[in-house]
Amino acid sequence: NLIKKEKLEQEYKAYQNEIQQNINIPILHIAKSSAKALKQENIQKIGLLGTKYTMTQDFYKKILIEENISVITPSDEDIKIVNDIIFNELCKGKIKQDSKEKYLNIIKKLQEKGAKGVLLACTEIGLLISKNDTNIKIFDTSLIHALDAANEALKDL
Question: Would you say domain 28-154 falls under CATH 3.40.50.1860?
Answer without folding.
Answer: yes
